[in-house]
Design brief:
It contains 14 helices and 7 strands. It is an alpha+beta fold. The protein folds into 2 domains: about 130 residues, Beta Polymerase, domain 2 (2-Layer Sandwich); about 180 residues, no CATH class. β6 and β7 form a beta hairpin. The chain is globular, with a radius of gyration of 20 Å. InterPro entries: RlaP. Pfam families: RlaP. This is DNA polymerase beta superfamily protein.
Length: about 325
């Protein structure tokens, strides 16, 4: 346990304030989709004092406080998450300036190089988050079929495997495939894999299988977790459509639009229940087709340039400590 786990939300904010290089308002407020009851959530990117890096315990990466939510990410963790096209992390770099509540010259440099973190992998990351929202809705409505569950879990596992080359140097030296997925009547999943390597570090294999195992565990919990009110499901639907529209835009234009100025009214109408669920599902199916088309003609590079991102991290750290 680190010292941060024992600190209150107020103590964490006081501690991280002088170490913060970038802090933004996030969530519904930054999308322009907040209501009178919405919390104002924030995320911060921090660089710790050297003393807190030179410890035997695991280095600080991320900690979250609640009511309202505030996420603190160490710079390295933040940049690694952004490099995987994580939507809730990328939005920090692309949100409107009016939602930036603190920024240092290191934070400005990070936002200036934000395009480094965009690639065609946005199809998987944004689309994956959207499909999770879709399954939450269908599960909550009792409309998720076994076929829906098998398709969703299979796509989730394959999407995770497609990111392995970002984290595991030995991944491309063999075969790692989802061979089959079955889901029983109670929603419990069984997964068959084909894994074939002449040589692979145990640590890498353990990491890869742990990611897939966690996805399976989360899937098995989904049915019980998603007995939600209609209002909650409509909020999921709004964010599902928002994510898909953002993904289509960024793939087609190379621009990530966080504030939903053009489609704000439509998204709020979804949240307010002005569409039937059949209409929502039809809308999602049409957006899915647009998303796949945008992937085929995207202006974004196939992958990010890890060398440039690593150089940026080094430069920011050296500048902060100089």
């Amino acid at each position: 346990m680190s010292k941060f786990d024992q600190m209150t939300a107020a103590e964490l904010r006081d501690y991280f304030e002088p170490q913060t290089v970038l802090r933004t308002i996030t969530g519904s407020t930054s999308y322009g989709l907040n209501t009178a009851t919405s919390d104002v959530d924030e995320k911060s990117v921090v660089i710790l004092p050297k003393r807190d890096y030179y410890v035997l315990s695991q280095a600080f990466e991320t900690i979250v406080t609640h009511e309202p939510d505030h996420e603190y990410h160490a710079l390295k963790k933040f940049m690694n998450l952004a490099n995987t096209q994580n939507p809730t992390v990328l939005e920090i770099l692309f949100t409107s300036e009016r939602f930036v509540t603190k920024i240092t010259k290191q934070g400005e440099e990070l936002r200036r190089h934000r395009d480094l973190f965009l690639s065609a992998a946005c199809f998987d990351s944004f689309g994956g988050y959207a499909r999770q929202q879709l399954m939450r809705i269908k599960s909550g409505l009792g409309r998720a079929t076994i076929e829906d569950n098998v398709k969703h879990l299979t796509e989730t596992l394959e999407r995770i495997i497609r990111t392995f080359d970002l984290h595991y140097p030995g991944y491309k030296g063999g075969v790692f495939l989802v061979q089959g997925v079955t889901v029983d009547d109670e929603g419990k999943a069984a997964i068959d894999l084909t894994v074939n390597y002449d040589s692979l570090e145990l640590k890498q294999l353990a990491g890869m299988t742990a990611e897939l195992t966690n996805a399976s565990k989360n899937f098995n919990k989904m049915g019980a977790r998603n007995k939600r009110t209609e209002e909650k499901l409509e909020k999921h639907a709004m964010h599902l459509v928002r994510l898909m529209k953002m993904a289509i835009e960024v793939l087609a234009t190379g621009q990530l639009n966080v504030f939903r100025e053009k489609d704000r009214e439509e998204l709020l109408r979804i949240r307010q229940g002005h569409y039937t669920w059949d209409e929502v599902f039809e809308m999602v199916a049409a957006l899915e087709a647009e998303l796949r088309a945008a992937k085929e003609t995207t202006v974004l590079p196939k992958t990010t340039d890890y060398r440039k991102i690593n150089e940026l991290y080094t430069d920011l750290m050296l500048d902060w400590y100089s």
